[in-house]
TrEMBL record:
Gene3D superfamilies: Type I PLP-dependent aspartate aminotransferase-like (Major domain). It comes from Beauveria asiatica. This is Aromatic/aminoadipate aminotransferase 1. The keyword Transferase applies. The lineage of its organism: Eukaryota, Fungi, Dikarya, Ascomycota, Pezizomycotina. GO terms for biological process: aromatic amino acid family catabolic process; lysine biosynthetic process via aminoadipic acid; tyrosine biosynthetic process.
């Protein structure tokens, strides 16, 4: 496979040979315009997924007002769609100051980037108007190139579409595949936003156990093999956070991902791969100078294989996000799947969110494409990994120093933003050496949460993330090293340790 630098050079050549990007409002675009010539070479097409679509999505069509805008010539006079003329927008330009060096240097230089009405690279007038559901040509081009370089999906007809963030994207993905009353498979502990969002659509979550290597492939297979379809619909959607899992921070091993994909092939599952922590790798590169071409190549090679990169059938729907790598407030991300699924996603977008925010796309394009380029973006991702690795080490050292290790235990994460702390409630004075009940475990977990708040530190209760609240097996806490400032990390853990000692009746010296 070509190196990162070689792939970037290949896309630069393709751009130089291509026609200029359109600058009009809601310009039609697709990943097919921007893939390399080798993207589909020797690859088969995805499977058809009609049998996995929800009742609603089988009848979901496209808006005729949106499709009418496709393929218009540059001299077309628009009298058909109610898009206000840019002369009525009270904004002439948009300027933001950005870091123009994505390396790990201190006191990074900044530069002002501006987007104006009539600009040939990215017309602000188009960004302020109604947009195309997939995103602007400028955004889709960069993200398509990025997806091909990082994941290189092993089937021909994949596409990428921008989202208004993963929360919005997931809501539409569930509508595409699930009917009210359906079941989806999830990790035993999972992101609360997804659980609540699924329940709002009357979708039931079926928890699958986890171990040190992530979601259990054996339990997944056993659950499906022994499913009693006479009682409820057999699940055919698996939702997983494979890297730096939220909340446990467990990362699925390479072998585990292959095992799970094999189970998905066996039972014909759709895999929804929610992977916002994919690029936050805690392992360091020690062979080369930080930010160098060699260091960036090493960083990319160290990334785990995504389910998208293993997918030969088009059964994976991958969701990426800018929230953990650029800014949550941009409300931007991207979804990659086979053409059939992405087309449905865009059809749903047309009648809901319509399109991702134009100003947010301008900010992303001006930074990633015009200022950093693909090399700079990867350099930034590698830099973030190093920064978070330092923060993680600070937190782990604080845990060793301030948490009573006969009560609290944790594993060192290799990715993500979290440390999962298990609490041994049998050491509690009220346990009296007996096997603790579920109620007592939750009582202690709740008390630790409240005592921590009283001590001036906010943590998350592990039970908040249970896909099935009845499946309590331990008292646990989730702490993140991403939100607080570095000087606050150690005092934060110290305050948590004080809360544990207070609750368990320990002296400060233990």
């Amino acid at each position: 496979m070509a190196s990162l630098a070689e792939q970037i050079a290949q896309f630069e050549t393709l751009r130089a040979q291509a026609e200029p990007l359109p600058t009009d409002s809601a310009a039609y675009t697709t990943s097919a315009f921007f893939k390399s010539k080798n993207a589909g070479q020797g690859k088969s097409k995805s499977k058809p997924w009609d049998h996995r679509l929800s009742v609603d999505s089988r009848s979901q069509g496209s808006s005729p007002l949106k499709t009418a805008n496709r393929g218009k010539n540059m001299d077309m006079i628009t009298l058909g769609t109610a898009r206000p003329s840019p002369q009525f927008y009270p904004y002439e330009s948009l300027t933001v100051n950005v870091v123009d060096d994505a390396s790990a240097k201190e006191n990074k230089p900044t530069s002002a980037i501006t987007c104006s009405k009539g600009e040939s690279a990215y017309n602000l007038a188009a960004a302020l108007n109604y947009g195309f559901p997939a995103g602007s040509p400028q955004s889709v081009r960069f993200i398509t190139e990025h997806v091909e370089m990082i994941h290189n999906p092993p089937y021909e007809d994949w596409k990428t579409s921008l989202t208004c963030g993963t929360t919005s994207g997931l809501e539409m993905v569930f509508r595409i595949f699930c009917n009210p009353g359906d079941n989806i498979l999830v990790e035993k502990y999972s992101y609360t936003g997804t659980i609540v969002g699924a329940r709002a659509q009357r979708i039931n979550t079926v928890p699958i156990g986890m171990d040190d290597f992530g979601l259990s492939a054996k339990e997944l297979d056993s659950t499906l093999e022994n499913w009693d379809a006479s009682k409820s619909h057999k699940p055919y959607v698996l939702y997983t956070i494979p890297t730096g899992q939220n909340p446990t921070s467990v990362s699925q091993s390479v072998e585990r991902r292959k095992e799970i994909y094999k189970v998905a092939e066996k039972h014909d599952l759709i895999i929804v791969e929610d992977d916002p922590y994919f690029f936050l790798q805690m392992g360091r590169s020690s062979k080369h100078e930080s930010g160098s071409k060699e260091a960036l190549q090493e960083y990319v090679e160290r990334l785990p294989p995504s389910y998208l990169s293993l997918d030969v059938s088009g059964r994976v729907v991958r969701l990426d996000s800018t929230s953990k790598i650029l800014s949550p407030g941009m409300r931007l991300g991207w979804l990659t799947a086979c053409t059939q699924i992405v087309d449905l996603f865009e059809a749903y977008s047309e009648v809901s969110v319509m399109s991702p925010s134009g100003p947010s796309q301008v900010m992303m394009y001006k930074l990633l494409d015009q200022t950093w380029g693909h090399t700079g973006f990867v350099r930034w991702l590698a830099h973030l990994s190093d920064v978070y690795a330092n923060r993680l080490n600070m937190m782990l050292e604080a845990c060793e120093k301030h948490l009573p290790k006969n009560i609290c235990s944790w594993k060192v994460p290799t990715s993500g933003m979290f440390v999962w702390i298990s609490v041994d409630v049998t050491k509690h004075s009220k346990a009296a050496g007996s096997q603790p009940t579920t109620e007592f475990q939750m009582e202690v977990e709740g008390a630790l949460y409240e005592r921590s708040r009283d001590n001036g530190v906010l943590i998350s209760r592990g039970s908040w993330f249970l896909a099935d609240p009845k499946q309590v097996s331990e008292a646990a806490l989730r702490v993140t090293f991403a939100a607080a400032t570095e000087p606050e990390l150690v005092p934060g853990i110290e305050r948590l340790g004080k809360a544990v000692r207070e609750e368990f009746g320990l002296s400060e010296t233990i």
